[in-house]
Description:
The chain has 120 residues and is an all-beta fold. 0% of the residues lie in helices and 51% in strands.
Amino acid sequence: QVQLVESGGGLVQAGGSLRLSCAASGRTFNRDAMGWFRQAPGKEREFVGAISWGGGRTRYVDPVKDRFTISRDNTKNTVYLRMNSLKPEDTAIYYCAAGRRYDPFEPDYWGQGTQVTVSS
């Protein structure tokens, strides 16, 4: 069993930055790949990116590539999503997820989500 708790969401102006955190407990964190997803109003949840269990590999979907960065600190059981140059279309609830497989990322556990709102 894994518990995931996101934090760091909020309201930001377009062009601004936010860093989301996801604290994990339960299963051995440093054996899990971690992923971020988002769900905008009226849309399905979509994959944003993932990081391998050791942190050496990351991958992103094209709309966020070069703007978002995923990192992790296995000593703190925490994964981060740094979001720069935010756009109104990045507005969504952001979820972190844990899974045993990095590529393709297959989530086994989900956090409760944190709201990110980008104003124009």
